Amino acid sequence: MIGFRGSVLILIVCCSFLGCKTPSSNNNRTTTNNTTRVDKGEREFQEYLDRKKNEYIGKKIPAILVKTLKGKSYDLSKMEGKIVLLNFWFAACKPCITEISSFNELQDKYKSKNFVILSVGTDKKEVAQKVVDQKKMRYAIVADRKDIAEKMKVSTYPTSFLIDQKGIIQQVFIGSSDFDATHAYTEIKPHIEKLLKK
């Protein structure tokens, strides 16, 4: 039989040649691998968003005719001279609902400066009206127009297009992953200010 000292000596020799893996080192390696995968995923998604934005920025907004819940009609191709924030949303989209307070603030701050928010919803009119009443939305709301979202190739919600005084798309805000919906006001405000200086 091998004595206690002999067993310890064999263990030391084995560790020297094979290397020991502690549970903590395995956990660290797993965490590192997971973090790498997440970082890669986030990077790829950001690259997708950038490509998506580049499809729009610098392009003329197409002819889009809408009628708001209050019955007012807008033709986006005939809104030159105004800055337009064209927003796409639906009631069950939490980030869409979160950014309503920011949009109310933007509307209040810039309504006297030829700034218009057109918020195009994909829900039926009754559903959209309920949200308008509950959240006290103070800007133009359009309902039941999924066709416009499809025309603009919107696949992530919320998505907003900032259109300048010449009808050119200058900025696109895609989804809550692109920017923090709770801070939509501070994210979008500098871009509006820049357009006002043109």
Concise overview:
This protein is of the alpha/beta class.
Q: CATH superfamily name of the largest domain? A: Glutaredoxin
Mean pLDDT over all positions? 82
* Radius of gyration of CA atoms, rounded to a whole number: 26 Å
Question: Which fold name corresponds to the CATH topology of the largest domain?
Answer: Glutaredoxin
Distance between the termini: 91 Å
What order do the strands of the largest sheet run in, or round the barrel if closed?
Answer: 5-4-3-6-7
The percentage of residues in β strands lies in: 15-25%
The largest sheet is:
5 strands, mixed
List keywords for this structure.
single chain, 198 residues, alpha/beta, Glutaredoxin, five-stranded mixed sheet, two-stranded antiparallel ribbon, 8 helices
